[in-house]
Amino acid sequence: MLDVSSLSVSYGSARVLYGIDLRVDDGEIVALIGPNGAGKTTALSAIGGLLPHEGTVTLDGRPLPTQPWEAVAAGLALVPQGRAVFPSMTVEENLFLGGFCRGATWRTVEDVFAPIFEYFPRLAERRRQPAGKLSGGEQQMLVIGRALLSQPKAVLIDELSLGLAPKLVQTLFEMIVRLNRERGTTFLLVEQASAVLEISNRAYLLQKGHVVHEGDARELLSRVDVLRSAYLGIQSGQSAAALRR
């Protein structure tokens, strides 16, 4: 569904991504994990057309447009880090923006909102409240719902767990799995925490702009040596105490 080849990004003379390759097959949940500063958000922004880049990105076998609004029209939805709701607009109005690009009108709004309210009933309860008054978890539900209303072929979510309590993160992860199983929604999830591997099919581990490991997500979760090396810089057989010395 999503194929990224030789993706490189620089900020001026500073290279951030070094020709990374990744793919997300139709109906998969794929995790892109790594320590802070590894280049995860940069990768999503480049794929979504928010940053100039080298390399190629295809969606469903076709080159993905480089303009963000064209990428959305082609079937790519990006849920940015920090939730990015329109705070003074209501929940309904925020959701409507997702459906608008697919031809929704206020006359058809109930039909458009119905499936989202089924998955996120809390949004139905707060549909006429300003989005800025929602809790962090409710705002995350809102931006996921808004992305789904664009009828995407693939959804990219940047740090779903950021700033949320572990119990709420688990609830949102379970919702991602449900959406994947019931609707066949394809997800690429960027996370710093390795807990996302528990719900993913495959995973990529990013370190300093390079993919240093890829494969089965559960297998990577069991590779303590690989994760320890990427996140802490501790090599196999080296103790944390030795690293501190």
Q: What is the rounded distance between the termini?
A: 46 Å
Secondary-structure class = alpha/beta
Order of helices and strands: EEEHEEHEHHHHEHEEEHHH
The count of β-strands is 10
Helical content class: 25-40%
Strand order of the largest sheet: 6-7-8-3-9-10
Helical stretch tally: 10
Stretches with pLDDT under 50, minimum 5 residues: 239-245
Largest sheet: 6 strands, mixed
Shape descriptor: globular
Oligomeric state of the chains in view: single chain
Mean pLDDT: 88
Fraction of residues in β-strands: 25-35%
Q: How much is the radius of gyration in Å?
A: 18 Å
Topology diagram in text:
Elements: E1 2-11, E2 14-24, E3 29-33, H1 40-47, E4 54-59, E5 62-63, H2 68-74, E6 76-79, H3 91-100, H4 109-119, H5 121-125, H6 136-148, E7 154-158, H7 166-183, E8 186-191, E9 202-207, E10 210-216, H8 217-222, H9 224-232, H10 240-244
Parallel strand pairs: 3-8, 3-9, 6-7, 7-8
Antiparallel strand pairs: 1-2, 1-4, 4-5, 9-10
Question: Can you describe what's shown?
Answer:
This protein has 245 residues and is of the alpha/beta class. It contains ten helices and ten strands. A six-stranded mixed beta sheet has the order 6-7-8-3-9-10, sandwiched between helices. Strands 2-1-4-5 form a four-stranded antiparallel beta sheet, covered by helices on one side. The radius of gyration is 18 Å and the shape is globular. Mean pLDDT is 88; it is low at 239-245.
